[in-house]
């Protein structure tokens, strides 16, 4: 590391007692001589051969070897001899005589005399100098420098190759994925860090900064260490920057290729297996269970699609990020990928949604159809059960329930038509692109099924309506039958009340002929009312017979009511006839009696015969006798008009009039008795 007085570099060769390998020494010298620059080499070398611990023949061999290794560069060779000089063999070889042959001067000098030729500051302590030198430290730093130089040079070659390949930008390079050949053999960051650390050591101009001696740098600028490191670092930074850009471009290209590959995977699956799954699912089912099974199958298909849709969302986010930070050259390709992916995914999602809506509409249609079918079954079951109500009110309630069920069926059928039409509209709007093929045949089967269900429900509803009409007519007839039976029973009651009134209140026979005639006229009107009541009851009972024949049933009340009606009417007729007979008798009695009583006594010739008085008395007695006789009915029962007091009152009026007639008779007889005596 020192310099001679001519500024030439000093090369020290320490020899030891062990056998020195000339080959290794030659290699070492070659290496050391390769370090200085050509300018330094031109100033020559001063070689110090430290032979104090070696033998003469080794020293001589080393000196002679210098002739072969560095003959031109060596200007002076200082052989440091030991204190005890070598034997006489040295005298046989005089180096100064061999100067011309060797090409450099060789001198033998003691260590303490070496300062005559070299300044002490350029000699190490081994030779009595003051130059600070640590060979191991120099060696370690040199190894670091050599390693850095080797790695950086190799790395520069690799980076240059990689960058050149990256700059080609051929389609073949773009399509090639990153492999191990693309990565450098060493980490550029590590090499750069090593270089910076080395440069920092060199810029301190000493190897061992901890010593306080004079600064000394065996790798001086003249040794090209620091400039070479700086140049390598600059080249590394340049190539590494290009390498990073290439890596970024390749990473972007790789990412783009991965995205494109994933996009094609999504597109191929959706247009392949995904669409095929939908192609095989075109039916809507023929029942709720079948539609639910198809919905479950569709949910499985949707689940598979969801996984690919999740990939689509992730890819869309990645593409959006690349579009925000991408280069102009990638925008077109990225947008095309994004558009293609979105078109396929949205089209497939639309197909899935259409299929889901179709199945939901089919499920609702079958649900309404099932409810309507159950309503029709319930209505039909109600119609198939024979009606046997107890009265008209229960019939009215049953009829109301029947009408409500029919109205519910009408609403259900209307709802079914609406659901069916909605489902048909969805099917008719289904284009061939929905499943990627012509679905006319499949749609026709679905349409035929829907129309068939609606027509079947319409026919069943029509049959039920017809049966309801028949049942309604029958139930109305039954209501009329019960009404007729009730009215007929009421007519019997009315007639019974008339009979009772006839017996209890129609008692008076009148005090004179005029009053009796009035009573007789009122009785005839009373009989007309009873006759109307009887006729009304007979008509109602005849209507019940007709209704029973129409309903093919036996009335429970009409068979009992008709005999009752006839019996009451018979009793009324007998009672009425008795009443008429009594009134007529009373009228005849009062007329005859009043006529006799009103005749003048001065006309005795009109009473020549006393038979009229006898007839009146006979009629009066007959009437009195009849008042005491009860009315006898065909069944043997008897009834009296009024109470005994009522009958006694009526009889008293008859007796009084009979007394008047009898008195009149006596008065007429007296003149007849006095006439013969005169």
UniProtKB/TrEMBL annotation:
Keyword list (alphabetical) reads: Repeat
Q: Which InterPro entries match?
A: CRAL-TRIO_dom, Spectrin_SESTD1
Q: Which Pfam families does the UniProt entry name for this protein?
A: CRAL_TRIO_2, Spectrin_SESTD1
| Record flagged with keyword Repeat | yes
Q: Which PROSITE patterns match?
A: CRAL_TRIO
What Gene Ontology molecular-function terms does this entry list? phosphatidylinositol-3,4-bisphosphate binding; phosphatidylinositol-3,5-bisphosphate binding; phosphatidylinositol-3-phosphate binding; phosphatidylinositol-4,5-bisphosphate binding; phosphatidylinositol-4-phosphate binding; phosphatidylinositol-5-phosphate binding
Every CRAL-TRIO domain range: 1-135
Q: Which family does it belong to?
A: Belongs to the SOLO family.
- Protein name, as recorded: SEC14 domain and spectrin repeat-containing protein 1
At the highest ranks, the source species' classification is: Eukaryota, Metazoa, Chordata, Craniata, Vertebrata
């Amino acid at each position: 590391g020192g310099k001679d007085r001519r500024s030439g570099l000093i090369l020290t060769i320490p020899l030891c007692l062990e056998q020195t390998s000339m080959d290794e020494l030659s290699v070492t010298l070659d290496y050391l001589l390769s370090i200085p620059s050509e300018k330094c080499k031109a100033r020559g070398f001063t070689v110090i051969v430290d032979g104090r611990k070696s033998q003469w023949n080794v020293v001589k061999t080393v000196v002679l070897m210098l002739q072969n290794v560095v003959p031109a560069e060596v200007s002076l060779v200082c052989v440091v001899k030991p204190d005890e000089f070598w034997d006489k063999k040295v005298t046989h070889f005089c180096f100064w005589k061999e100067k011309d042959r060797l090409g450099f001067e060789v001198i033998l000098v003691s260590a303490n005399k070496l300062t005559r030729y070299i300044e002490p500051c350029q000699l190490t302590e081994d030779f009595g100098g003051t130059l600070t030198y640590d060979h191991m430290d120099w060696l370690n730093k040199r190894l670091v420098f050599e390693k850095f130089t080797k790695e950086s040079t190799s790395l520069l070659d690799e980076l240059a190759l990689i960058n050149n390949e990256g700059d080609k930008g051929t389609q073949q390079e773009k399509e090639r994925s990153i492999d191990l050949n693309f990565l450098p053999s060493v980490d550029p960051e590590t090499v750069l860090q090593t270089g910076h650390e080395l440069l920092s050591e060199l810029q301190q101009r000493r190897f061992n900064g901890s010593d306080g001696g004079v600064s000394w740098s065996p790798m001086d600028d003249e040794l090209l260490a620091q400039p070479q490191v700086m140049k390598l670092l600059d080249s590394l930074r340049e190539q590494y920057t290009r390498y990073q850009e290439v890596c970024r471009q390749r990473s972007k290209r790789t990412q783009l290729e991965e995205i494109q590959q994933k996009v094609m995977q999504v597109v191929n699956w959706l247009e392949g297996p995904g669409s095929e799954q939908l192609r095989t699912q075109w039916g809507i089912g023929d029942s709720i269970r079948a539609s639910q099974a198809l919905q479950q199958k569709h949910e499985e298909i949707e689940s598979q699609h969801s996984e690919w849709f999740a990939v689509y969302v992730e890819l869309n986010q990645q593409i959006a990020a690349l579009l925000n930070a991408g280069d102009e050259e990638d925008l077109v390709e990225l947008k095309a990928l994004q558009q293609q992916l979105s078109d396929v995914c949205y089209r497939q999602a639309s197909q899935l949604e259409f299929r889901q809506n179709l199945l939901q509409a089919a499920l609702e249609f079958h649900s309404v159809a099932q409810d309507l079918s159950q309503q029709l079954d319930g209505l039909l079951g109600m119609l198939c059960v024979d009606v046997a109500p107890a009265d008209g009110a229960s019939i009215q309630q049953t009829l109301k329930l029947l009408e409500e069920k029919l109205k519910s069926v009408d609403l259900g059928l209307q709802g079914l038509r609406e659901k069916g039409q909605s489902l048909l509209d969805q099917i008719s709007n289904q284009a061939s692109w929905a499943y990627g093929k012509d679905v006319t045949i499949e749609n026709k089967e679905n349409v035929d099924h829907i129309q068939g269900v609606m027509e079947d429900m319409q026919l069943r509803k029509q049959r039920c309506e017809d049966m309801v009409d028949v049942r309604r007519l029958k139930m109305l007839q039954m209501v009329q039958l019960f009404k007729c039976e009730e009215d007929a029973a009421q007519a019997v009651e009315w007639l019974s009340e008339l009979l009772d009134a006839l017996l209890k209140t129609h008692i008076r026979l009148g005090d004179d002929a005029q009053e009796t005639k009035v009573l007789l006229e009122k009785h005839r009107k009373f009989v007309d009312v009873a006759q109307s009541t009887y006729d009304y009851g007979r008509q109602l009972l005849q209507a019940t017979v007709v209704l029973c024949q129409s309903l093919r049933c036996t009335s429970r009340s009409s068979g009992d009511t008709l005999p009752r009606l006839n019996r009451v009417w018979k009793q009324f007729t007998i009672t009425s006839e008795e009443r008429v007979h009594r009134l007529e008798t009373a009228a005849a009695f009062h007329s005859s009696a009043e006529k006799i009583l009103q005749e003048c006594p001065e006309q005795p010739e009109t009473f020549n015969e006393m038979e009229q008085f006898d007839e009146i008395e006979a009629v009066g007695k007959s009437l009195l006798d009849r008042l005491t006789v009860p009315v006898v009915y065909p069944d043997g029962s008897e009834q009296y008009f009024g109470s005994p007091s009522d009958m006694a009152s009526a009889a008293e009026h008859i007796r009084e009039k009979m007394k008047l007639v009898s008195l009149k008779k006596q008065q007429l007889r007296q003149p007849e008795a006095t006439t013969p005596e005169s």
